[in-house]
Specification:
The complex is a heterodimer of chains A (361) and B (561).
Chain A: E1 11-20, E2 23-33, E3 38-42, H1 49-57, E4 64-69, E5 72-73, E6 84-87, H2 99-109, H3 114-127, H4 143-155, E7 161-165, H5 173-190, E8 194-198, H6 201-207, E9 210-215, E10 218-223, H7 225-230, H8 235-240, E11 245-254, E12 257-262, E13 267-269, E14 277-283, E15 288-291, E16 302-313, E17 317-323, E18 328-334, E19 347-352, E20 358-360
Parallel strand pairs in A: 3-8, 3-9, 6-7, 7-8
Antiparallel strand pairs in A: 1-2, 1-4, 4-5, 9-10, 11-12, 11-14, 12-13, 14-20, 15-19, 16-17, 16-19, 17-18
Chain B: H1 2-26, H2 38-45, H3 47-80, H4 86-92, H5 101-112, H6 117-126, H7 136-160, H8 164-172, H9 177-206, H10 209-213, H11 220-231, H12 237-260, H13 282-311, H14 327-335, H15 337-367, H16 373-381, H17 388-399, E1 403-404, E2 409-410, H18 416-439, H19 443-451, H20 456-483, H21 490-493, H22 502-510, H23 516-550
Antiparallel strand pairs in B: 1-2
Classes of the chains: A alpha+beta (361), B mainly alpha (561).
Amino acid sequence: MTEHKLQSTGVKIENLNLSFGDTHVLRGVNLDIHNGEFFAFLGPSGSGKSTLLRAIAGFGPKPKGRILIGSEDIANLPPWKRDVGMVFQSYALWPHMSVRKNVAFGLEERRLPKSEINERVDNALDLIGLKHLAERKPAALSGGQQQRIALARTIVVEPKVLLLDEPLSNLDANLRVQMRREILELQRKLKLTTIFVTHDQEEANTTADRMAVLDQGIIQQVGEPMKLYDNPTNLFVAKFLGTANILEGEIEAHADGVRFRSNNGASLALNAVHQQGRGSIVFRPQNVEIVKPGNHEGADHNRIAGSVCHMEFLGSVIRYGVDIGNDVVLIDHPHKQGESTLALSSKVDLLVDRDGIQVVA
Amino acid sequence: MAAGLLIALFLLLFLGIPVVKVIFVAFQDPNSGQLTIINFVDFFRNSLFRESFVNSFYVATMSVVLASILAIPLAYFTTRFNFGGAVLIQTLGIIPLIMPPFVGAVAMQLLFGANGSVNLLLDEHFGFTIPFMEGLNGVIFVESIHYFPFILINLSAALNNIDRAMEESAQNLGSSGLRLFRRIVFPLALPGFVAGAALVFIKVFDDLGTPLLLNVNNMLAPQAYLRISSIGISDPTGYVISVILVGFSLLALWVSLLSMRGKDYATVQKGGGGLMRRDLKRWEKLGCYAVVIFILVLVLSPHIGLLLLSFGTIWSFAVLPDAFTLDHYYTVISTSSQYITNTLLYAGLAALFDVILATAIGYIVWRTKLVGRKWLDYGATAALAVPGVVLGIGYLRTFHSVNVPIIDEPLASWWIIIVLAMTIRRLPYALRACIAAIQQVSVMLEEAAENLGATKRRTVWRILVPLMSGGILAGFVTSFATASVELSATIMLVARESDAPLAYGIYEFMQSAAGRGPGAALGVIAVLFVGIGTYISHTMIERTKRSRETKPIVAEGVPVK
C-alpha cells in the first residue's frame, strides 16, 4: 500500500448529545480534528470517551448532532457505509478465519477483483511485517501480532479516518511502549487521521498531536499535551494529567499586582489575571523549590514557610510533603547520588515560581 | 493414596470390566470361544437387524433435524432480539428435560396417535389425519420434543458467547445483513450447534424406553433388550448391538470434540458480549410469540396428556377422557408403593455414592499430584459413552456368576446392582458439578488453614467441603432426579417385581390398556421428582453463583491450578 492512495480527511463533531435512558453519556460535544492529525480522547472510565469513538463508527445508541467526515455528515449512515476504520480493544479478529482471510475480509465485502485483493493484502501484511504468518489462525499469534493484524485489517480498506479503541490496553508493559512507537510510525507514514481512546495520560502525551480530555460526557479541554499539562483550565484536567498542588483562597488586586491569599494565610504573587474573588490555584511539584529558611536565593519567588512531614523516594526525584498550615504541598526534588535528604520535621521554605502557577475555575 | 486406588478399582469393576466383557463376547464364537467377527457377519446377514440398524440411524438423524427446527428459531429470538418472551423460552428449554421421553410416549399416542385427540379433531373438521405417531414417526416426534433443549442450550450459549466486537468489526469493514450472518455469526456459532446435535443424536440412538413403550421394536436398543431378555445372556446379538451402540457413542463424542477443538470461541471479552439485539416491530413480535407458543404447546403436550391420562377414567377414541377420577393414584399408592420407596432408596443411595466419588475424584485430580490422577476423571467420564443397555448387559454377563455371600444369590440379581448401575450412569454429571465447585475454591484458602495448623484431612473437611457444598448438593440432586427415572440399564437388572423402581413400574403398567391410568399416575409422580429436583439444583447453583459474585472467593489473577 502506498500512502498517496489514502483519502484521509478531518473529522468535525458538532453539538453531539447521547443518552442511555436517563443517563447523559455525551453532552454538547464539539470537536474539530484536523486531517492527518493523531488525536487522543483521554479520560477516566465512564467519561464517555469510548462512547464518543463508537458513535463516530456508528455503534451504540444513535446520538443527536452532526458527525462530519470531510464535508459529509455520516451521523445517519449505518456502520458499514461510513468508511471509518476501527481497531477494537479486543482486536476482534475472527477466530475461524486465517490471518489472510481476516485482512481480506473488508476488500471482499467491497467486491474487489481477486488479484487486487491479493496484492493489497500482501502489501498490508508486508507493512506490518507479518506476511509469514498469513496462513495461521489468530489464536496462534501473540498479543502484539494480533494487534498488528487488526491494524492491517483496518487500514487495508483505506478508510478516511482510523479509530483505535484503547489499542494498547491488552498488551504487557514492555510491548506497550514498542507498539506505541509502531502505531505512531505507521500513522506518520500513512498520514491518516487517527483518533485513539485511552485512559493513560502517558500514552496520550507521548503519541498525540492534540488531545481532548473528557469527564462525565463533557469535553473539559482540548489542546496539545504539554499545553494542557501546564495550563489546565479546570481542576479536573489539572489533577487528571498529573500530580498537582491545589490551594483554595482569594484572588485580590493590590497596588503592586495580583496576589493570591490562601485559606491558611500564605500570600503568593500571581501573573496578571482577570478573575478576582474566590478561586483555586494549581502548581506542579516540580515547579517548587525547597530551601533552608534564611536562604535568600530566588528572592523574586513566592516564599511559603513550612516543615517536612513526609518523604517518598520515587527514583529520579524525591517527593517531599511540606506542611504549610492547613495544606500539604508536594515538592519534587531531583535526586542526585550522594546528596543528603531533608530530615522529617525540619523547617524549610518553599519557593514557588509565579510562572508555574495556574489559576483555575 | 488409598482412596485413589479404591476409586480406580470401583470404576474398573463396575464400568471397565463389564464393558470390556460385552465387547469381548461380541467378538467371541459362541460355541468354540475363539475370537471372530462371525457374530457381526451374522448380524448384518439378518434382515431384521439390518432394518433395525437403518431405523435407529434414521430415527436419530431425523430427530436431530426436527429438534433443530424447534431449537434454532428459539435460540435466534433470544440472542438477536429484545424479545419479552426470553424467560418463556428459557423455561421451554427445561420443561421437556424433566420428563423422561418414555413416560410421555403413551400420553403422546393418546393425543397425536391415529385415534388421538388431534387426529380426531382434524378428521372431524377437515377430513384428514396426520400420522404423527405411526411407527418410527412416533419415536422421532417424542424424542425430538424431548431432546431439542440440548440444541437450544448449546446454540444459545454459542451465540451469546460471540463478542459483539466480532460483529461490529465486520460492519466496520463494510459487511451487513445476510452476508455478515453467513460469514461471521454462523461459523462462530456452529461448534455449539454441532455439540448439541451430536448429543441429541446419541441420546436418541441409545434410547430404549421410548421405542419399547411405543411398541417399535425394529430398532437397535429394543432388539438388544429383547434378545437378552427373551433368548438369554448367551445370545451374541445383544453384544453385537452393544458394540455398535458404543461405537456410535464414541463417534458422536468425537465429532463434538472435533467441532469444538481449536474453535473454543469463548470470544467474550470485557466490554459486554452477545450480539447486537434489536427491537421488534409489532407484527414481528406477534410472529415470534406465535412460534414460541406453538412450540410451548407442543412441548407441554406430553405433560398435559400424562396428567389427563392419570386423572381420566376411560380415554379411548375420544378427544378427552370420559370422566375424571383419583382412582389411579389410589391404586398406585395402595398396591404399588414399593416402586416409589425403591426409587427413593436406589436413587438416594446412587446420588450419595456419586457425590462421594465425585468429590474424592475432584480432590485427587485438582489438589494432589497422584500419578495418573487424570485417568480417574477420564475413567468416570467415560461412562458417558456407555449406553444404559450396554451397561445392563455387561452387568448381567459379568455378575451372574458372582455370588453375594450372606444372602446367597448372584450379584446380578441383587437390588444393589441397580444402585451401582445408577451410580455409574450418573457419575459423569455429579463429577462435573463437583469439579466446577472445587475449581471455584482458591487453593490459598486451604493453604491458610494448613498454615494455621490444620492437617490435610481437617482442611478438606472444614474448609474445602463446606465451600463446595453448593456444587456437591447440586450434583446430588441432579444425580438423584435423573437416576429416579433411569430405565435402560435398570430394566435389564430388575430380577423381581418387589425390587423394581419407578421407571420399571411405569413400563410394566403401560404394557396393558388397563394399566395406563396407574402408569400415568406413576409417571406424574416421577415428573414431580425430577421437576422438584431440577428446581432445587438450579436454585442452589444460582445462589452459590450470586454469593460468589458479592464475595469473590477466588483471588483475582491467581490461577486456580
